[in-house]
Amino acid sequence: METAPDIWFPHLGIEIQALNRVAISVFGFNIYWYSLLIILGALAGFFMALREAKRTGQNPEHYYELFSLGIVAAIIGLRLFFVAFNWEMYRHNPLQIITGIRTGGLAIYGGIIAATIAVFIISRVRKLNIWLMLDTAAPSFVLGQAIGRWGNFFNREAFGGFTDNIFAMRILPEQIRVSISPELLAQTVNARGAEYIQVHPAFLYESLWNFALFAALTLYRPRKKFNGEVFWLYLMGYGFARFFIEGIRTDQLLIWGTEIPISQVMSALAFVAALIAIILIRRKSTD
Fold first, then answer.
1. Closest among 53, 58, 100, 60 to 79, alpha carbons compared
2. How far apart are CA 117 and CA 126, in angstroms?
3. Which residues pair with 169 in a beta bridge?
4. What does each C-alpha distance from 14 to 6, 10, 98, 155 come to in angstroms?
5. How far apart are CA 108 and CA 206, in angstroms?
6. What SS3 state is found at 198?
7. Which of 4, 70, 236, 276 could tie 118 with a disulfide, CB 3.0–4.6 Å?
8. Under 8 Å CB-to-CB from 36, ≥6 apart: which residues?
9. Contacts (Cβ under 8 Å, ≥6 apart) of 20
């Protein structure tokens, strides 16, 4: 009898056995894939920003400073944004805010806000053009997001409701750490002697979109019309996709006392603000 895989993409013919959340263990201290992939994404983004800084004649040292400040700020922002909209989870054990960060519980808009603030601080202190720095960093932001999203895969989270499309993903419910909706449990799939939930891999949709957005921004950047345009296009492109992807997720962060997903609101605001900024700046430049 064939073994039931931990994760299964039946229509793609992909089966993954014994998927472990722990990447390595050093003297009993577990290092999770979730953490490693976020670090890998940050490093990949950093080296891409360095490359662009050299191409455009900027001082790479400023990006070493930005990386040092930005990585700390981004992690704090990622965590605090998640905690703010999940306070009931931590109010009786606030130490978990710090100790639980390696295994999950980060919200990307907190990281985007914090990283942008880091760029603002460095540009003000060093008297640099903040919009040029944001254009240099924007594709790096989205590349880091594209890679970091795979931490959700290892954590078996950031998925949507039931689907039978080509990307449908089957997961063993007992291996999932987030709550599973009654609707999903009512549509379980029995295969190879195991019971699965079959879901939209929302993390995969977002990661693929982010890789495509990274490529588009990188190709467009040498042709930009004004400093800041690439950053606004990043917010616009990411906000557009995240708005719809967030709509299918089952683990949404909700605005307090409502059923409104905060990430959908942030995505809509990012898209509209970026669109208005691009229109106004381009119109001003033609006056």
1. 100
2. 14
3. 199
4. 11, 6, 36, 18
5. 12
6. strand
7. 70
8. 23, 151
9. 33, 154
Distance in angstroms (rounded) separating the CA atoms of residues 243 and 241:
5
The three-state secondary structure class of 22 is strand
Q: Which of 30-44, 80-94, 187-201, 219-233 has the lowest mean pLDDT?
A: 80-94
Closest CA to 42 of 166, 148, 149: 148
Pairing of strands 169-171, 29-32: unpaired
Helix 130-148, helix 33-55: angle, nearest 10: 150
Q: What is the DSSP string of 227-253?
A: TTHHHHHHHHHHHHHHHHHHHHBSS--
Side chain identity, residue 199: V
Rg, Å, the chain Cα set? 20
Question: pLDDT tens digit string along 157-176?
Answer: 999 999 999 999 999 998 88
CB of 167 closer than 8 Å to CB of 201: yes
Q: pLDDT tens digits, residue range 170-208?
A: 999 988 878 888 889 899 999 999 999 999 999 999 999
Residue pair 243/264 in contact (Cβ under 8 Å)? The answer is yes
* Euclidean distance between CA atoms 249 and 236, whole angstroms: 20
> Token digits for 215?
């490529």
Q: At 132, is the secondary structure helix, strand, or coil?
A: helix
Distance CA 144, CA 106 (A): 14
